[in-house]
Every structure is written in structure tokens, then in C-alpha cells.
Design goal:
Order of helices and strands: EEEHHEHHEEHEHEHEHHEEEHEH
Oligomer: single chain
CATH superfamily of the domain at 89-230: Divalent-metal-dependent TIM barrel enzymes
Structural class: alpha/beta
Strand order of the largest sheet: 5-4-3-13-10
Number of strands: 13
Radius of gyration: 19 Å
Helix content: 25-40%
Distance between the termini: 14 Å
Largest sheet: 5 strands, parallel
Length: 307
């Protein structure tokens, strides 16, 4: 998955160069898609990312989204090729712990693999089930002490192994993605699911911001599972997470408390090769401004560490 170093000009006329041969940088369409109900066209988002000299986009299409913006799968693939962008990965969530839901999840998962293969991509980011009762603003599990969460983790582990093997047989891979408000939120829960799943089939796709908001140390967890890393969400955060809304904690890269230089040094040490996806799912800037600021930080700070 190596990527060549290419120089170019980004927004506002600043020079940006792709910072690493072993790393491919992408951003999530979510930044443009969910921007204050502005309904930014998909083609505009792709142009923004191309102008920033990114390598790819994390694109998890909603139902009928391509046709909404006037695309077919083929024409969208052509646009990506024209803009020299690739699909980095696809987020995939579900109630993996619930046996009654697994047949439906499996069918949807196979469709996801087929879609990724169409675009020449291979990474599936596995979002764990919600932490509890989503009608409760605090997402409590209903028993008052969240004792049901370990049982849910134990119940979903064999199914994740099954999904990972199916992906591997198709030339793809899955990465478990810790996330606040899910049953894999804090270090104990991360350790539990990683211990219960087979490293051959289930990798780690950490989100730096969610690990920190969930009470973990992103650098320590990345070191601990360095042999299972296969994808990243880079997210910067600050402050203490107050369930359930993590939006107020999010910042553009370099403006929060996550130790990205330390993380990049670890990736250099282990010679990580793969995607680093900048996921900014809340901002007070425009998507173009937010993406530009994060890329300035990447090019001025992070790319100099691991290239």
C-alpha cells in the first residue's frame, strides 16, 4: 500500500507534499456530508480532497447516495481516478453480539466487501454495537452498572472472527474500531475484545480521539497492539467527555491533546504501511477550512517524522 511522494499546491496557495512513502492519507466524506445540513455535493468534497493532494477518501455510502448526487458506481469510480484518489475504507457497524441479527449483518457485510472490491479497496472498519439504551441520554445499559457489556463483548467475538475470515478469503481485512458510546469504549473493553478475537482475522483500527475520550492512552494502546494495526482514524480531542455528545471535544489535528508526534514515531518504528484517515465529524469551520488546517499540521509536523 505504499504511496509515492508528490508535491503540489493546496488551498490558499500553500505548498503541500505527500508526507510519507509508507502511508496513504485520506479524509472521511463524513466531514462534508454532515456539515450543518449544508448538503455539500459529493463532487465538491472530492475536489476539495484532490486539491489537498490526499491519496483517498473514506466513503461509506448511504442508501441511494450516489444517485442523489448524480453518480453511478462507475461514474464515481471514474471521478476518483480523474482526481487521483482511492477509496481508503468503509465503516461497518451492527449488533454483532445478537444472534438474531447476525444473518442480516452477514448479508450486509458481503455487500460491503463486494462494493469495496469494486473500488479496489480492502479495509473494513468495524464499529461495535451501541453501549446501551439509546433512548436514554446517558446510554445506560439498563442494569445501572453496565454489567451486561462484558457479556456482549464475549458474544460478538466469535462472529467478528467469522467476518474477519470471510474478509480475508476475499483479499480484505477488518479492523476493530474502539468508539465512545459503544461496548468497546475504554481500555478494559478494548483489551477484552482483542484477547477474545483471533489476530489472524481481526485487526485493530484505532481512533485516536475516541480512545482518549474513552479514558485510554492512544499511544499506549497503539504500542500494545502494534502487530494488529491495519487502519487508523486520526482525530484530535480535548477535555473530558460528557456522554453522549462528543462533538464539543473534537478539534482539528494539532489543536487538541492527542500525542500525534508520539504516534507517528511508533508507526515509524514498526514500519506501518497503510491508511491514515483523518476523521473530523464535527467542526465550527467549513469542511474546506477544517480539512486544510488538519493537512497543514500533517505536512508541517507529522510527515517529517515518518516519511
Amino acid at each position: 500500500m505504499a504511496s509515492a511522494v508528490v508535491a503540489g499546491t493546496g488551498f490558499a496557495g500553500y505548498e503541500c507534499s505527500k508526507p510519507a512513502k509508507n502511508i496513504r492519507w485520506s479524509m472521511g466524506w463524513i466531514l462534508w456530508r454532515d456539515f450543518k445540513n449544508a448538503n455539500i455535493p459529493l463532487a465538491e468534497a472530492i475536489k476539495n480532497m484532490s486539491d489537498l493532494k490526499l491519496d483517498g477518501v473514506e466513503y461509506t455510502p448511504r442508501k441511494d447516495e450516489l444517485s442523489k448526487f448524480g453518480f453511478t458506481r462507475e461514474s464515481f469510480r471514474d471521478l476518483l481516478a480523474e482526481k487521483n484518489l482511492s477509496i481508503a475504507g468503509n465503516y461497518f457497524g451492527g449488533n454483532f453480539h445478537d444472534p438474531e441479527k447476525q444473518d442480516g449483518i452477514l448479508a450486509a457485510f458481503k455487500n460491503t466487501l463486494e462494493n469495496l472490491k469494486f473500488y479496489g479497496a480492502k479495509n473494513v472498519v468495524i464499529g461495535p454495537p451501541g453501549r446501551g439504551n439509546w433512548s436514554d441520554p446517558l446510554h445506560h445499559t439498563g442494569d445501572g452498572n453496565e454489567t451486561g457489556i462484558p457479556d456482549k463483548i464475549r458474544a460478538m467475538a466469535p462472529f467478528l472472527n467469522e467476518l474477519g475470515k470471510i474478509a480475508q478469503d476475499s483479499g480484505m481485512e477488518i479492523g476493530l474500531h474502539p468508539h465512545v458510546n459503544t461496548i468497546v469504549e475504554n481500555p478494559v473493553e478494548i483489551d477484552m475484545i482483542m484477547e477474545l478475537t483471533d489476530p489472524k482475522y481481526v485487526g485493530m483500527a484505532p481512533d485516536t480521539g475516541h480512545i482518549q475520550l474513552g479514558g485510554g492512552d492512544p499511544l499506549a494502546i497503539i504500542k500494545k497492539y502494534s502487530n494488529r494495526l491495519n487502519y487508523f482514524h486520526l482525530k484530535d480531542v480535548t477535555g473530558v467527555f460528557q456522554r453522549p455528545n462528543f462533538g464539543p471535544n473534537l478539534r482539528e489535528l494539532g489543536n487538541g491533546e492527542v500525542d500525534f508526534p508520539g504516534i507517528m514515531n511508533v508507526l515509524k518504528e514498526i514500519r506501518y504501511k497503510g491508511w491514515l484517515n483523518v476523521e473530523q465529524d464535527h467542526t465550527d469551520m467549513t469542511p474546506e477550512e477544517s480539512a486544510t488546517q488538519s493537512m497543514k499540521y500533517i505536512n508541517s509536523k507529522l510527515g517529517k517524522i515518518y516519511g
